Structures are given as C-alpha cells and as structure tokens.
Amino acid sequence: MTSVIPMPAARLTGRGLLAGGAAAVAATLLAGCGDSPADTASDQPRRGGRLRAVFAGGGAQETLDPHLANLFNEASRAKAMFDKLADYGPDVSIRPRLASGWEPDAGLTRWRITLREATFHDGRPVRAADVLYSYARITDPKRAFRARASLELIDLRASRAVDDRTVELALRRPFAEFPNVLAAFGAYVVPEGTDAFDRPVGSGPFAFDAFQPGRSLLLKRYADHWDGAPHLDELEYLVANEESARINALLGGQADYAHDVTPTTARTYAGDARVRITRMANSTMQALAMKVDRPPFDNRDLREAMFLLTDRQQLVDTVLSGAGQVGNDLFGKGYEHYADDIAQRVPDLDRARFLVERAGARGLRIPLDTAPVASGFVETASVFAEQARQVGLTVEARSGNKDTYWKDILTGGVLACYRSGAMPIETHVSQRLLSTSTTNATRWRRPDFDALYARAVSSPDEQTRRQAYGDMQRVLHAEGGFLVWGFADFLVATSPRVGGVSAAAPANTLDWARFDKVWLG
C-alpha cells in the first residue's frame, strides 16, 4: 500500500474546490509558484516557478510504481521521475534515452546497449545491474506489469552486465526491431533492489517531494538530470476526473495545464484569452473491428463493402467534432513505416451495394458492439448505422458492459467499436494481427501474413523491412478486418503563461505530457 505523505493539496471537482474551502485551497495551490508570472509565456525558456497540471486520476489506490503505470496521469508522472532506455519520437520511431546507443550481433539475438552517464536522485549512478534488475522485476511471472509481454522476448538468464555502463541482452529469437522493446510502455529503469515506491527514487528530470494518492503529487527540479535540468522549479499534479472540473481549474487560475479536454471545450474557448489549446494530431486510431473468421465478415466482398460505404469525413466531423483526420483502414498514419503510398479510400455507394448483393447480404442485420468506454463510441455506432442503411445493411448498436468491454470483444461478436493509442506499427502487428497475437480483435490469422512479419523483424536490412511492412499493409488494406475511419487529435488546454508544450507529440510518445521542457512566462 502506498503511504500518504501529508502536504497541502486538494481534489478538484466539477463544483469547484473541496477540502477546506475554495478560498483557502486556492491560496494553497498558488503558493510556491515563484514570482508573479507574465500574462503570456515568453518565446524563450525561462527558469523557475511551479506548474500545476490537472489530470483525471485513479483514486486512493494510485501508485507511483512506474511499472504499474496505466492511466494518463500515472504515465506522465512516471516519465517525470524515471527514464526508459528508449522512447517514442513524434513519428513513433525510437529515440535513445538512458541508452546512448545499441548494437546487435550478426544474428540479431544479442544486443549490446551502452548507458549514458546518468544518476538517480540519491546520487547513485545508473548501472547495467539496474537495467537487469528492472527487466527481471517487470517480467516476474507472479506480477502483472504492463511491459511484461514486450520484455518476455529477452532471455535474462543469458543476459549480462559487461560493465557498469554496458549491458548485453540475449533474445529468444532474432529480432531487428528490438529497440521497440526498450521503449515499451512502462519499461522504466529503477535502482537495483527497489520494490517500494512510497518515496520513489528515479533518474528522471523531477524528484519526489510529497504524494497524496488520488489527490496530488509534488515534484521538484532535479538539477543533475542527464538531459539537462528542467526549467521549472516544481511540478504539481492535481486530480479532477471530470473534464469540466479540469477546464474550470484552468479558468479559475488554480491550474496551468488541463489534460484531455473535448473538442467541444476546445471550440468553446477558442477565442478566450485565458486558454490555449494544443492539438496533438494522430494520437488515437478510431476504428471498427470486423471478425474475419466467422459470418458475415468471413466474406471478403462484404468487408470491402463496409470499407466503401463508410463516409470517414462525416464520422470525423460528427464523432470527433472535426478534431482529427480521416483514416485509410490502416493503423499508424504519420508513423514510421506507414504505407502512405496506398490511395485514400473514398465512399463508393454503388460499388458497395453491388458487393452487398454479391455477398447475399442485402437486408442483413449486423450487431455492432459498443459501450461508453471511450469518447465517441456510442456516437460512432449511431452514425455508422445510418451510413450502412444506404447500401441495404441494418447495423444495430448493442451496448455492452463497460467494465468488461475490451475483454468481451476479443472473442465475442462480429463487429465492434475500437480504438488504439500510439505505438510502433511493428508492435500493433505483433500484438493484434498475428496468428499468435493475444489481443487479436479481428481474428485475422494468415500464415502468409505471419511470414511477412517474420521477414521484417528478422532482417538486418532496413529496405527489406520497409518493403515487408508495406506488403503487410497492402494486404490489410485490401482484405483486413480493421475499418480505420479516423485518427483523433489529443487536446490539452493551458494557461497563456505556459510555454514549450509540444504539438508534435501523439499521446503516449515521449513529448506528450512531458514537463521538463515546459516553462512559465
């Protein structure tokens, strides 16, 4: 159980501030912010101040264990206090972090990784032993850490510390895309022997100060961070689960950064001098998942009809309120290895009707599984049903249990609303589209497709890999089960006094919700 460290803080709600009265709490929240800031952030970084960032939270059970990070606020806090060996850049290519570089052997089964000269917050150097310990902790079969599935490729018994700043990781099979594993969500390096995180010690740009689970976390600048000290003196995370409460905290001057606001809110405050909206494009794939192993979508003609009846722009305009762009039935638009040479699909209702007739599906009733588990899912089902009706299909929304939705749609049903955050295209394929994938929601199982993937990840030649990824995407575009209709922007709101928030960072990449490069005006 995470212990509670007393500190002056409050939980924000839609009705305002609780716990001690609005005036008293507002004064507390504003304390420690340094000199009175300018109304607008300067173009150049400026040192000092406390930035207050408000996120949705996880309640009293929140933890600072970076290997358990799952929610957005937990992920942001983990990257503030800890480092991974690598992370995702704006195009989800791999960027070195604690690792200054890596080199495979000729067989792609042993990777030698060189560590930077970095230190933990207590002054100890980051060593190869810390990496091996962290990965062993993550892959412990008795634990349920998110990065475990990615790191299980590593044979830790055959891996070794060459010296304090060099670690050699042995793999269970050749894998050219191993840097993707180093950047896996939650694969943070912690000091050897660490298993308690009530007062965490990491190597990130901010060091722990005080924590109240479900309420607030206060961090302080770590001057000796290997990537340069943060501009801010302090970083405070606050919690407000309601989006209205987050934007009201910003408008009321009780927060400087409001995470995850809706397109409606963004439009409402577009002309308000108190608010700046940052749009992070290509953050979330929006899709429908058709199960290709069972009727009716084991019929390729009907799958193609579904692709062609879809008015993607209408879905973007209505479901996403215009805060996004159309998809082309492929994951990872704008990411490394994305097949942008494949022509964009556009509605063709005549062709769709013909294919429906040829499939013998005219008048067919198709249940569409949906649930209020993600913004826009219920609206997607309604809009898509209207589009399908134009070609003689009756799509009927079927609302599921929001607590078990993601598990239920893996094996049940025939059509479901689906979404995904940023990850490398290789990871998307390996987790969702191979015959052995454990989260294969479309039940796509093709030996020839598996062989293309194996060719990509086992080849040391970049051109060979690029060609294989292109071939995989062409097969999926023509025959696959993911109807990817759009990519949603991720929206955050900030005070004008905040500078340095990156707009070129899809959610879950390195520069998303990253505060060591942010400053106050």
Automatic annotation (TrEMBL):
Membrane-crossing residue ranges in chain numbering: none
Entries under InterPro entries matching the protein: Peptide/Ni-bd (IPR030678), SBP_5 (IPR039424), SBP_5_dom (IPR000914), TAT_signal (IPR006311)
Keywords (A to Z) from UniProt: Signal
Gene3D superfamilies: Dipeptide-binding Protein, Domain 1 (3.90.76.10), Dipeptide-binding Protein, Domain 3 (3.10.105.10), Periplasmic binding protein-like II (3.40.190.10)
Signal peptide: 1-31
Ranges where the Solute-binding protein family domain occurs: 94-424
Protein name listed in UniProt: ABC transporter substrate-binding protein
Organism of this sequence: Micromonospora harpali
